[in-house]
Design goal:
Blueprint lengths: L1 H34 L1 H15 L13 H30 L5 H38 L12 H18 L2 H10 L7 H4 L1 H15 L4 H25 L14
Helix pairs in contact: 1-3, 2-4, 3-5, 4-5, 6-9, 8-9
Length: 249
């Protein structure tokens, strides 16, 4: 036990150093984002004003609400901006223990996973969010005036971007599971109903129980799941097929 700890000590020191670098990078990018907090908040609020031009100013009802909202927004932008550097530090830590073939596989996975997540977040902000806001703000009337809180609106926007970013990983994860031989090529087609139920539950949780938002989020997820089934047929040829359970050894 002691020998194992002694052998891991150099790796522990390296890990600590890389974690410190990651934290410093996030701190610096978050500070820069906080200095631009007004511009970032205006950029996030712009879809709301486009959906409802009569919208007045957003409000906050506690003394700390505005500060905490800007702080959360700055931290989120800081993590997003430092994400490539964080991946680079993770890569430097694990690369020495990988074979060349494994390095190529990891690079491919990280590249596609990052691109799909960014695509999902962009889709949420530029496509899904404006339509959701237009729908929700349609309930405003001369006798019903919306007064939105800054913190809740930014939280809703961030949750949407995160939910769609994760959702866009669905086809990629399905193809990777098939290519790795973890699942059969027709598994997702056969288990469509259980996965649809899981998607509906996930959408309900991510939207905190709002039925309309749940439907608006679940429908694209269903489409992505079907796209994953098609992608598995095209790209999901397994390198190490699962052994036939009916064949005697």
């Amino acid at each position: 036990m002691i020998e194992a700890l002694e052998q891991f000590a150099p790796h522990q020191a390296e890990l600590r150093g890389r974690l410190i670098r990651c934290c410093v990078a996030v701190l610096l990018t978050s500070i820069v984002a906080y200095l631009c907090k007004d511009e970032l908040a205006a950029w996030c609020i712009r879809p709301l004003y486009l959906a409802y031009p009569q919208m007045g100013k957003l409000v906050y009802t506690k003394l700390t609400d505005a500060f905490l909202s800007y702080l959360k927004l700055s931290l989120l932008v800081g993590v997003a901006a430092a994400f490539p550097y964080l991946l680079y530090q993770i890569w430097l830590f694990i690369a020495p223990g990988l074979l060349e073939r494994e390095k190529r596989t990891v690079r491919t996975i990280v590249l596609w996973a990052s691109l799909l997540f960014l695509a999902g977040a962009a889709f949420a902000f530029f496509v899904a969010l404006p339509r959701m806001l237009h729908f929700f703000m349609s309930y405003a009337s001369p006798t019903l005036q919306p007064m939105l809180k800054l913190g809740l609106y930014l939280t809703f926007t961030a949750r949407m971007a995160l939910a769609f970013g994760i959702a866009f990983e669905i086809p990629f994860l399905m193809v990777m599971a098939t290519r790795a031989g973890l699942l059969k090529s027709d598994h997702f087609r056969q288990k469509r109903i259980p996965f649809y139920i899981a998607i509906a539950v996930l959408s309900f949780l991510l939207t905190t129980g709002e039925i309309t938002a749940t439907v608006l989020l679940a429908l694209p997820l269903f489409a992505l799941y079907e796209a994953g089934i098609v992608a598995c047929r095209i790209f999901g040829s397994r390198r190490n097929p699962l052994p036939d359970q009916t064949t005697a050894p």
